[in-house]
Amino acid sequence: MVNEVADTPENPQITFEVISLFPEMFAAIERSGITRRALERGLWAVRHTNPRDFAGDAHRTVDDRPYGGGPGMVMMAEPLAQAIASCRARHATPVRVVHFSPAGERLNHLRVMELVSESVLVLLCGRYEGMDQRLIDREVDLEVSLGDFVLSGGELPAMALMDAVIRQLPGALNDSNSAVEDSFVGGLLDCPHYTRPEVWDNRPVPEVLLSGDHARIRRWRTEQSLRLTHERRPDLLATAGGAAKLKQS
Ligand code: 9D3
């Protein structure tokens, strides 16, 4: 083997073991933008496991009707259990399993920062009405929701989590869009942004941004962040991050 040594570092900081009936959806983050570049650089890795490959019948059935009746179908425990087992078997150490569910805790920056330090995450994506509760009770460490709206499954929430985690990996971002400058990191919403031209549709760029007075610009941006946060997300101002930002301004 001639090309055993790769050009890019091959030891991902995090591996996502995705369990989904629709692995092709994940092309959205594997093939575009910052997440694609970070994947090409070997900062993260992804493996796809389809529960259908562990179905027990020729029709590859993974869902069944709910006990007690009612609409829709439920994902059966056994194909999911085997899918999780095959993911666990690829790793020497214990692995956390995240289940995406409308009943989960709402994803936030604090949880993202906690998950960045894991070396492997199993991401369990449901379809239909959900999964057999016994599988969740036995296997799942954390249940995550994206918010109070109805999606068709857990894949988009899983990709949202992956994207949020990947952009925190050292080397994923350019200096020009550093993760430490991200909105929410300081506990406040971001200030408004402007670029050329100076006047667009009779609307000028705020004068202060053209002043070249960097101390004044910094104060203006903090003030705008505080105003916007107060108007739209007063709940964020109650946090320590908001208080710290207020003091420093
Ligand atoms: C009829 C009751 N519905 C629960 C609110 C059923 C149901 C709706 C949507 C069952 C599963 C789903 C699929 N959604 C997810 O898997 C999901 C989700 C979401 O729908 N919204 C926000 N976050 C998430 S995380 C996973």
Average predicted confidence as pLDDT: 92
Q: In whole angstroms, how far apart are the ends? A: 59 Å
Rg calc: 22 Å
Order of helices and strands: EHHEEEHEHEHEHEEHHH
Ligand identities = ligand 9D3
Sheet with the most strands: spatial strand order: 2-1-6-5-7
| SS element count, helices | 9
Number of strands: 9
- Give the % helix: 25-40%
CATH architecture of the largest domain: 3-Layer(aba) Sandwich
Derived structural class: alpha/beta
| Unreliable sequence segments | 1-8
Q: Could you name the CATH homologous superfamily of the largest domain?
A: SPOUT methyltransferase, trefoil knot domain
Which sheet architecture does the biggest sheet show? Answer: 5 strands, parallel
Shape: elongated
Question: Which CATH C-level class of the largest domain is it?
Answer: Alpha Beta
What are its keywords?
two-stranded antiparallel ribbon; Trp Operon Repressor, Chain A; 2 domains; 9 helices; five-stranded parallel sheet; Alpha/beta knot; 249 residues; elongated; alpha/beta; binds ligand 9D3
Element layout with pairings:
Layout: E1 14-19, H1 27-30, H2 33-40, E2 44-49, E3 63-64, E4 74-75, H3 77-89, E5 96-106, H4 109-116, E6 120-125, H5 133-139, E7 142-145, H6 155-166, E8 199-200, E9 203-204, H7 214-232, H8 234-237, H9 240-248
Parallel strand pairs: 1-2, 1-6, 5-6, 5-7
Antiparallel strand pairs: 3-4, 8-9
Helix pairs in contact: 3-5, 4-6
The site of ligand 9D3 has 15 residues, from strand 5.
